[in-house]
Amino acid sequence: MISRRFALVTAVYLATFMAVLDISIVNMALPTLQTALNTDLAGLQWVVDAYALCLSAFMLSAGPFSDRYGYKRCWLAGVALFTVSSGLCALAPNLTVLLVGRVAQGMAGALLIPGALSILSHAFPDPRSRAHAIGGLSSFSALSLIIGPLLGGVLVDTVGWPSIFLLNLPLGVAVLVLGGISIPERRHPRHAALDPAGQLLAVLALGALTFGLIAAGEHGWTHALPRYALLTALLGMVAFVWVESRVARPVLPLALFRHGEFSRANVASFVLGFSAYSSLFFFSLFLQRIQGYGPAEAGLRMMPQFVLSGLASILFGRLHQRFTLSSLLIAGYLLMGGAMTLMVLLDATTDYRWVGLLFALLGAGMGLAVPGTGLAVMNAVPPERAAIASAVINALRQTGMAVGIALMGSLMSTQAIRHLSAASGDPVLARQAVTGATPAPELNDIATQLTAALGSGFHLAMAVAGAAGLLTAALLIGARRMAAVPEPAV
């Protein structure tokens, strides 16, 4: 009979694996989903962003919610919701139902991912044992990102796109059983800091921002719909900051951002999501729609990014013994920004050796940036604020990914439409072809032009992502130089 502690660790690892896997595995099914559900590029952006948006918007409330209602109860409720919503996604007959399932998955993931750290920390009071347990959790998270694209591609090619969601059903049932018998219940109602106004405004602002950016790519930046949505997002953000600065126990403690190191690390975390995490969406489209590979082949070709990311993360501790945290962070963001900037040179005929090399450089940069950014945030706050700091950095990273897919996806779409309009002389056909509103057989006459147009859009998206990474490296270099300048004697 398995021990209670082993069952607890297994449940937490599997649940985190399941939640993080859904960040990467879905990207490999995007072109297939576009055909199966008869949707356009904006619909594909929402398939990924609905999950990321709810994950980021509700993550800050997970801790206070668990304090009030019980950590075990909330975490298991998250597992159950994630499992049921995965089944809904697999059975979705259209895009609307799929998006409802993705929203539910994101809300459930917001309970699962931060709750895992809390459960492990409580189960392993000894610092050394706790470090091993949390290290294993990080390895499982990295493993899910590594195998997600490959597993997703194989499943889509051999079984069909619903299988990427059906995979969560047996995992979810196993987690419910193991977690139910092993996780002790605890609650801290006096510490609960529910902030319904702040939570509502966060969802409103992020949702309006994402909707406005995606609508801009679909209808154009001068259309009334994106303009009103972006105005709503701006007003929502202003109201959110106003509320958070006045409530006694806010969902986002703004006082933390008075610390320069904490603010810089969270800006870096946002860029990490904006540039690197969102790249899966664009790489899937590049490999499948521009270079013409199938889902399984595309997943295999993305492996250098995740393998190098995992290796660099494993070596991070040793590297930190020889180099300063600042140096490792700067190197990570320089590699990320440089690799993505060089991707503007890729096209439909580029030899895979160059594509794979840039994927590997990006992965190495991520392997330095992810643990380095997390460590920088933890170093910037006192121990009693570690939990909320962890929630903030994760929420901003997921927000960055949602905004990155929405903004760069719209830029890619707009640039591709502009390019194809000039080449074909038919702006209406160009918009329909790029967004996927025109049936594939009708595109045979402009197939080559469409590929070149999508490549042009991909180049613009990568230029923006690369610039964000390089600017972050410049910010970190400037901060280090300022810290090295001695204060003048008084």
From TrEMBL:
Pfam families attached to this UniProt entry: MFS_1 (PF07690)
Alphabetic keyword roster: Cell membrane, Membrane, Transmembrane, Transmembrane helix, Transport
Keyword Cell membrane: yes
Example GO molecular function: transmembrane transporter activity
Annotated CDD domains: MFS_MMR_MDR_like
Lipid bilayer topology: Multi-pass membrane protein
Chain ranges passing through the membrane: 7-30, 42-62, 74-93, 99-120, 132-152, 164-184, 196-216, 228-244, 265-286, 298-316, 328-346, 352-378, 399-417, 458-477
Similarity annotation: Belongs to the major facilitator superfamily. EmrB family.
NCBIfam families: efflux_EmrB (TIGR00711)
This protein's name: Drug resistance transporter, EmrB/QacA subfamily protein
Lineage: Bacteria, Pseudomonadati, Pseudomonadota, Gammaproteobacteria, Oceanospirillales
